[in-house]
Amino acid sequence: MILRADHVAGSVFVAFGVAIIALSRDLPVGHLSMPGSGFLPMIVATLTVIFGLLLILRARESAPFAELGWDDAKHAAMVTAVTAVAIGLYEHLGFFFTMLLMMVALLILGERRNPIRAGIYAIAIVLFTYVSFVYGLKTPLPEYSF
Q1: Of residues 9, 8, 45, the one with CA closest to residue 25
Q2: pLDDT tens per residue across span 46-71
Q3: What 8-state DSSP symbol labels residue 30?
């Protein structure tokens, strides 16, 4: 059997879904009429496992894993590093500043966009998201706390 790209990707999705299901077992799932905090993670994790299995089953349509190019590895590592830094800063800088810095870093450093346009776009998206969550959905977001 030839190991194909979708074999690997599907296996990663299945493992990730199973890990989320295992880690969210202590959250109450509730019922369909009154879902608990573990309801959505359980649904998403189950769908992740199902789609991962479907990906594995249809893997013969994908390229062999050995023939994949790794040209984007540097870009993927940069996105992962910026996201990891944002996760670390999230509780200290709050939602607004962390997401603004993350989007600007990804757009300017990663995508090489015009800094002024990237800044305007990042401010617009983060402001829209902030207003949607805080005022529309009435969901409190972490604030700056140094």
Answers
A1: 45
A2: 999 999 999 999 999 888 888 888 88
A3: B
CA distance 5 to 101: 33
Q: Which residues pair with 35 in a beta bridge?
A: 30
Q: Are 42 and 24 in contact (CB under 8 A)?
A: yes
Is pTM, for the whole model, over 0.90? no
Three-state SS at 64: strand
Number of Cα atoms under 13 Å in the Cβ half of residue 3: 7
Q: Is 80 exposed, middle or buried (0-12, 13-18, 19+ CB in 10 A)?
A: exposed
Strand partners, 30: 35
Q: Is the pLDDT of residue 119 over 70?
A: yes
Alpha helices in 24-133 (DSSP H): 39-57, 73-105, 115-131
Q: How many C-beta atoms surround the C-beta of residue 124 within 10 A?
A: 11
**Closest to 78 (Cα-Cα) out of 112, 106, 103, 99:** 106
Question: Would you give the distance in Å from CA 118 to the centre of its chain?
Answer: 21
Euclidean distance between CA atoms 112 and 63, whole angstroms: 30
